Amino acid sequence: MWRKLISFIIVDMLLVIVMIYSAVTGSIQLSVLELIQGLFTGNEQVEIVKDLRFPRIIIGMMAGAALSVSGALLQAVVRNPLAEPGIIGISSGAAFFSVLMVFLFPTLFFYVPLFAFIGGSLAFLLVYSFSWKSGLDPLRMILIGVAVNAVFTGLLHVFSFTGSSMIAAIGDMTMSNLSMKKWSDVKIIVLYGSIGLFLSFFVYAWCNYLALNDKTAKSLGLNVNVARFVISVIAVLLASVATSIAGVFAFVGLIVPHVGRSLIGTDYKLLIPFSALMGALLILIADTLGRTIVSPIEAPASIIVALIGGPFLIFLLRKSDRIYGS
Amino acid sequence: MEVENVVYSHDQKTNHINQLSVEIELGKITTIIGPNGCGKSTLLGLLSNQYLPQKGTVKLRNQHLQQYKLKEIAKRIAIVHQENIAPGDLTIESLVSYGRLPHRTMFKTDKEKDYAVITWALKETNLLELKKERIDTLSGGQRQRVWIAMVLAQQTPYLFLDEPTTYLDLYYQYEILELIKHLNQSFGLTIVMVFHDINQAIRYSDEIITMKHGKVMKKGSPEIVITEELLQEIYEVDVLIKKETETGLYMIPIGI
What was the ipTM of the complex prediction? Predict the structure, then answer.
């Protein structure tokens, strides 16, 4: 019990500290006091920070929260600790569809998350239906996901190589790039992202029941198919929204719920909010490091996530041989 | 419950249940026995709405089982499956509380009632002191009692168990069997079990259903059903059946 509470408090505190650090650090250096004063009185430097740094801080945090919760939900749906929106192709499907739609209908920019959602759903549907016959066998499902991911990533690269100016405008979606984000982007990700996160808090009990056998869940009176469908829709929504604004982040949806389980347990009532907080923290740290460590060069946040995430996951797996399950 | 002329196939090729009719009597312990692949577990699955019959009907209180909502069935029929998984860090108490699912709705939960029922289920299965323990610290016998406690929390008149003693050693086998008997006698639960051990079936059942090739061979009290001829026919094993005052009826296989 204490361990859980302390984990929550530490993540919350770190989040606030990194948020402030991120806001005051970079090419324009401010003190915390200057920042706070500037917010109330108006100050040229603070205005620049507000326009350039605040959006990427908020977007990074929202994307991290959305991807982590999405990963946690998908892992419940397929009862497989390896399920993750990046690995099984949801992110690349979403990215490809956003690029395609912006290419075809450039004026519909505000609806990009919607197209991303269609793309993400398509990818998940493919993975799900191809692995259905094998009874959603974990290994098979991941392999099919890898294949679906490869195809959508390939299609995405095809578009990048054609070098259309439209594509250049929305950036290379295979890698996340949080620089040059505007308040209009913030609006989109906060709107759709919070809907997804809000909905995810209602399905925690279903996620818990799905950890039992399907047979057992059904004989307890749970409509397993309906529960799976609803949770999947929320997970795909979250991943698609995050991808359409922040680009593809591999790994976040895998590592954050994993760390979450080892710190606060498998109960989704806690795991969902904890994953959201920790995911936000992870991408915020990655982005802040990426733009400060070798400044003025900016390393994309997704690369830093991979660099931190990989070794950390190995460390975690070495420490405990429990993965997830009974 | 009544099963009438049910046909069911897992693969649309061979009928795993073939024109089967049988009645489950209220308040009794009924055991289904038969060789591997005879359809015992399938029959249990049909009775508990895990499988839908392709032909024929399964009725609960003179109403088709399919006409009930899932939650309504879960308030009447509880089943302990053979294979069970749960996250290892779940406490016994939390897992048992899952049994209250059919009595909950999205907006309405009777917390006091839930707590009382969960406590009752834990007490009957002798797990009350262990309720804060994690599932992964338990022995096989304790774990099986936890699953029984969970389905007891559903508060159903029917309790089904699919090979409840299979992975347990002798002591835990009899512990589970005594528990089942106690639940039947103290609370009038109608119990249907699938079993491999014929001697345990004889000792603990009011009614035995013998099956082969998806059909019921014979149904009745152990004394009537268990004969050397019938067991030879079902299992193709030669057996001796004895009856002594200390042991009651028992069976010893002597060869094939």
Answer: 0.90
